[in-house]
Amino acid sequence: MASRRERIHSRLRCAAQAASEFLYGMTTYEWVCDMRRERGEIERLFILVTFGDIVGVPILPPYYTLRLLPYVVPVTNRWKRSLLRERDLTDLVGMLEGVT
Amino acid sequence: MNSISVLILGAVAIVVGYGLYARYINRNIVQPDASKATPAKMYMDGVDFSPASRNVLFGYQFKSIAALGPITGPIIAVQWGWLPALIWVILGTFFIGWVQDYGAMIMGVRHEGDTMGALSYKLISPRARNILMIFLYFYLLLIMGAFGNAVGKVLMTSPKVPFGMIAVVLMGVLAGQMTYKWKADIILTTVVTVVLTFVGIWVSTLPFISNIFSGLYGLEAAGGSPTWFLGNTQAQVLGTLLVIIFCYLGSVLPIWSFAQPVNYVSFWIVSLGVLGGIVGLLIWRPGMGDFPAFTQFTTASGPLWPMLFITIACGAVSGWHSLVSSSGTARQLEKETDALPVGGGAMFMEMAFAVIAFLTATVAFGGLQGYQDAGGAGAALGVFSKGLANFLGYIGIPNEFGVAYGSVFLTIMALTIMQLVVRFMRVASAELVGNAMPAMKNVHVGTIVALILTLVFVWVIPWLTIWSAFGASNQLMAGLALLLISLWLKEEGKKNSWALIPAAFMIVTTIAALIYLAYTNFGKLAQPGITTQGAIAATLVGTIAVVLILAAALLIFDGIKALLKPREKPAPEAA
Questions:
Q1: A24: nearest CA in chain B?
Q2: Ranges assigned E (strand) in B157-218
Q3: Is there a contact between B52 and B334 (Cβ–Cβ < 8 Å)?
Q4: Is the pTM here over 0.80, yes or no?
Q5: What gap in Å lies between CA B215 and CA B221, rounded to an integer?
Q6: Quick check: A93 and B115 CB within 8 A?
Q7: Cβ-contact B342, B61 below 8 angstroms
Q8: What sign has the CA pseudo-torsion A79, A82, A84, A85?
Q9: Whether the bond into B292 is cis, omega within 30 of 0
């Protein structure tokens, strides 16, 4: 059974962890999101260029598309949804953190 | 009433509102399920959907919703007396604010991360989405006008502010270079840029720098800065142009090199100022002095009902939060059960922020006269910077530096928002009219058009009028969001009065405010001796109010039809 001191230490560690995550959320998390978004968009475009025929874009699959196929199969459903999802201007709200 | 009593009242509201009411609704009505897969997990694509821990999201949500709104609204609203403003901040958050933020978030999670636009289309009607876009468009245009007015025509006209603002911008650019080009450690980058920014703010208070701006603004002339055009002085025109240049750079430069790092450095400048202000307030513990609990029913902004309820938007309830909660945070929630601490918790924390702003107006100057001498409702940001300087004085910061610091931090807070809004407007105009007018797809053309519209609003419309119009467009979005939440609850077979009653209140109040705005502004046109500037401003604001009323009327019609429609889903069976 944990002693009282250990319990207090454990709670303090949890509080410090929560505080550091909170600070991260308020500061550099936005940078990380932007970078991730940029990488995701480039990847989405790359898959469209190489596997566009899956969604009806008429491209001739070259040889290396077949080499990439095993890596793309696991993300195909997510990629299709991400590419074809209906969007409107409220989707861009992510650009506007801290407006009001 | 003592400042500590106000803080205790705020704390009690958080404990009861979040700890009892919000938790009761969450547990017994919404019933989130931690084991259900959220859209962030199901559709993780690294672009829109990506899970994050609730502590990280709490920080992200709070930063996304708490900016200048909770500071400005309460400072303007104390013109009706401190009691109505305080009651609305506390009860507005308690019964409406968190309901909207949390409701929009959990509704987004249960609807596969759909945006408010898509939800309006599905739950109300196809044209409800277009109405939301109208609200959004006016909201963004008015926010540019309101913040541009407050910063360009008030804060930037002080000769001790522009150099401090330039220092923040330069340090932001340096932070971007250090992080992305030189791969420097983030802690080193933060320390270097934040310390240098404080040095820059201090330098801005020195006579040899402030004299340069005094000369530039024509402040040394007898009678102060000369009037150039449309009633704007030389200082106001040049201050506004500095704002416009900043927004232009923020819109056209790559986000990593300008907007993002400037935002980052300004976060530390703002946070340290707020923390210092809170410590100073706790040491000082001032009372309200002779600040009246209630002044009069009708003030410069109009009658208490409905105008108070649109004057304080953020800090009580803000429609913008529903967009952030659904399109932003709902797509990152790891578990459904995180929606309450993230959505509801961040809103209650914003209420605490609004209470601090309320105190800078009411207790920092010893009474109503001090508040009015500091600028009053007509210069709300000036009141905050001077009030904050008074608080900072209790931790040993000289008043002159404190005022410059407060002004720079508010300026940079507004500018970081404005540059992102211009960026958004540029992208939105390219999407909306880019095919019909290919020139609008050009980055510079789109930006310049957005900035010209901003200048018209800033130079022509008076501050209090534009703030009221901005608040009305914001609160209409809140009404729409609450209506959507009510419809979603109905669709799920859950009790919805906790969202429907606030929706009715927000819609009725906001439409009343818009009718008042339209009536007073068109009424001004009939007044003899109205100036050209006054006539343009009255026509602009009156027209915006009429457009928003018509849009809201269509929305109510469609909303009531949707509410009366029989439910499609079968009711859940009792356990």
A1: B56
A2: none
A3: yes
A4: yes
A5: 9
A6: yes
A7: yes
A8: positive
A9: no
Centre a 10 Å sphere on the Cβ of residue B527 and count the other Cβ atoms it contains: 10
Rounded to an integer, what distance in angstroms lies between the CA atom of residue B360 and that of residue B68?
Answer: 14
> What count of other Cβ atoms lies within 10 Å of the Cβ of residue B91?
14
Tens-level pLDDT at each residue, chain B (575 residues): 789 999 999 999 999 999 999 999 999 999 999 999 999 999 988 778 999 999 999 999 998 898 888 999 999 999 999 999 999 999 999 999 999 999 999 999 999 999 999 999 999 999 999 888 888 888 888 999 999 999 999 889 999 999 999 999 999 999 999 999 999 999 999 999 999 999 999 999 999 999 999 999 998 887 788 999 888 999 999 999 999 999 999 999 998 899 899 999 999 999 999 999 999 999 999 998 889 999 999 999 999 999 999 999 989 999 989 988 998 899 999 999 999 999 999 999 999 999 999 999 999 998 899 999 998 988 898 899 999 999 999 999 999 999 999 999 899 888 988 888 898 888 888 888 888 999 999 999 999 999 999 999 999 999 889 999 999 999 999 999 999 999 999 999 999 999 999 999 999 999 999 999 999 999 999 988 888 889 999 999 999 999 999 999 999 999 999 999 887 766 555 54
E strands of B197-354, at which residues? 227-229, 232-233, 298-299, 302-303
CB contact under 8 A, A22 and B46: no
Q: Tokens 């915006």 identify what position?
A: B544
- CB contact B353 to A (< 8 Å): no
Chain A CA closest to residue B48: A37
Task: Choose among B15, B566, B458: nearest CA to B240.
Answer: B458
Pairing status of strand B298-299 against strand B227-229: unpaired
Alpha-carbon span B24 to B437, nearest angstrom: 52
Q: Tell me, what's the ipTM? A: 0.90
| Residue (of B425, B354, B410) closest to B144 by Cα position | B425
Phi and psi based region of residue B437 (left: phi greater than 0; alpha: psi -120 to 50; beta: remaining): beta
CB A71 within 8 A of CB B284: no
Residue B463 identity (one-letter amino acid): W
Q: Give A 14-73 residues with CB within 8 A of chain B.
A: 17-18, 21-31, 33-34, 36-37, 39-41, 43-44
Query: What's the CA gap between B23 and B73, in Å, rounded?
Result: 28
* H/E stretch holding B225: none
B254 three-class SS? coil
